[in-house]
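Request:
You are asked to prepare a plain-text protein record giving the amino acid sequence and the backbone structure tokens, at your earliest convenience.
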Amino acid sequence: MFAVTTLALLITVSLTLARAVLGPTVFDRLLASNTIGTCTVLLLAVIGFLAGRPEFLDLALVYGLLNLVGTVAVLKFFHDGKPGDHRRDEEAVRQ
């Protein structure tokens, strides 16, 4: 059962990787990379369960949090421009 789950996750990562490479926009590629991160979290949890190593679940949780923070940072970069550039925020406050 878990071997089938692992195989399904690997197939999903492969298809998502193709979408990341062939995505027409940056946001499609970002969504694909976020999906790959989510599948990696699930894969770590399944492998940790199969190996009888509960530490893998801790690693999966940390990786999931890093995936979330990275996705938010990239979205903020595309929304606001350069990191640390607050000109758009100041212009919005003035108006």
Summary: The first helix runs from residue 2 to 22. The mean pLDDT is 84.
